Amino acid sequence: MKKISSVFIILLLSLNVIAETAEEKGLAIAIEADKRDTGWGDQTARLQMILRNRHGDKSTREMHNKSLEVKGDGDKTLIIFDRPRDVKGTAFLSFTHAVKPDDQWIYLPALKRVKRISSSNKSGPFMGSEFAYEDISSQEIEKYSYKFIKDDVYEGRPVFVLERFPQYKNSGYTRMITWLDKDTYSPLKIDFYDRKNSLLKTLTYHDYKQYLGKYWRADRMEMVNHVTGKSTTLLWKDYKFNNGLTDRDFDRSSLKRAR
Description:
mainly beta; outer membrane lipoprotein receptor (LolB), chain A; globular
């Protein structure tokens, strides 16, 4: 009887493995990645944005960032430009949502007014960079459907390769392919495919560091546009957590006074 029971259990386990579809496995991995990056509360950081054209000419912008984790919804993010002078005081505010369209606003000092970014313009470039407005939003699980592609190795690190498909309107992408570190569940590379399903951009993450003994953040992000030959580098530093930020620090009416 023991031998029969053992065989029966092994058979059941085999059936369970077979029954898990690529979509189910992809979703399970995405949920685990989200779980591992939940609970940080709030964070601030300083960053440098380096824009390069196809000839290699570059321009640099400096800014600082504030983020607030919102339970049951997406994160709130405020980005304020500090340099150079022509963009100083520009402030971008984003309220990411799990299922409904994100709310985003930008304050332009030259016009002295706050402009709401239309949901139909989420695929537009953020401040002339190769990052779109939708790239800057927090990547909530419900915003995508998922499919596991394969296990692989990327730059010597074991990874999951997942495909995800935007479930929100007006995305500039048909799908993204993500290489996710199996140890930390942090993204290492993302390929973005445009509305014609052609490879448009590639984002890579570099120089990860761990904070609070749990959360991983990249010091450098490289976005390359394969169509235009342009690229954007984001250099992050001075990550700080548990700053005591509240909803009041992300009030759209205070964008003009953001510092």
